[in-house]
From TrEMBL:
GO molecular function: 5'-(N(7)-methylguanosine 5'-triphospho)-[mRNA] hydrolase activity; IDP phosphatase activity; phosphodiesterase decapping endonuclease activity; snoRNA binding
GO biological process: mRNA catabolic process; nucleotide metabolic process; sno(s)RNA catabolic process
Chief location bin: nucleus
The name this protein goes by in its record: U8 snoRNA-decapping enzyme
Ranges for domain Nudix hydrolase: 38-181
Alphabetized Pfam families for the sequence: Nudt16-like
Nucleus in keyword set: yes
PANTHER family registered for this protein in UniProt: NUDIX T16 FAMILY MEMBER (PTHR31699), U8 SNORNA-DECAPPING ENZYME (PTHR31699:SF1)
Length: 208
């Protein structure tokens, strides 16, 4: 499913090349490794008693004014990619509970940035609603809150009757790096939205 989506979305995001092979495989041209993660929880709630919310999906406003996911560069002293990601999670989110850390089982996909030669790992983790709320509150006391992280936001996983408000409008924000592509594939990986729904939202975002 993801492989097919990456192929279809490739022309929209030409700078980011999917990397196949084993988890550990690193292209020779890769100069650094970064890892980011998407937290989400499912919900059957309705917005305005009309639109299915489907899920609460977490992103953050970064220091540079762009939207992105928690995470960052993996340092040489990190024991693994997950260790590097969870170190960043602790710094940016203020969450230090192992239950909220990303594991190898949460790994979703990786891309190579043709502009920076960074190898970009992405993880997707479902958490219970109460833990999702806990994460949102934790960030206010995180070490990097007000510095690297300027706040947590939820992604609107619906499109309103005008065909533009909701997710299509959200897609018109400024995203850091390949965060927009990561969001699209993350929503697909979590089976929150279909590729057809995501493609329609992308097309609608460009036509307004």
């Amino acid at each position: 499913m993801l492989a097919n989506a990456m192929k279809q979305l490739g022309p929209r995001f030409p700078i980011y090349q999917p990397v196949e092979g084993s988890f550990e495989s690193v292209p020779d041209c890769a100069t650094k490794i970064a890892a980011h993660g998407m937290y989400y929880t499912l919900t059957d709630g309705l917005f305005l008693n009309q639109y299915e919310c489907r899920a609460q999906v977490m992103m953050q406003m970064r220091f540079d004014g762009c939207l992105g996911f928690p995470g960052g560069l993996v340092d040489p002293e990190d024991n693994s990619i997950e260790d590097g990601l969870n170190r960043e999670i602790t710094e940016e989110m203020g969450a230090s509970s192992p239950a909220l850390f990303f594991s190898r089982n949460d790994f979703a996909f990786k891309h190579l940035s043709k502009s920076t030669n960074y190898l970009l790992y992405f993880y997707v983790k479902r958490v219970p609603p109460e833990e999702y709320g806990f994460l949102e509150r934790c960030v206010l006391n995180a070490r990097e809150y007000g510095k690297e992280t300027l706040g947590i936001i939820r992604v609107p996983c619906y499109t309103m009757d005008d065909g533009f408000k909701g997710l299509p409008t959200f897609f018109n924000n400024r995203f850091a790096g390949n965060a927009k592509l990561q969001l699209i594939l993350g929503l697909l990986k979590a089976e929150i939205l279909s590729l057809d729904e995501l493609t329609k939202a992308l097309d609608a975002s460009k036509s307004n």
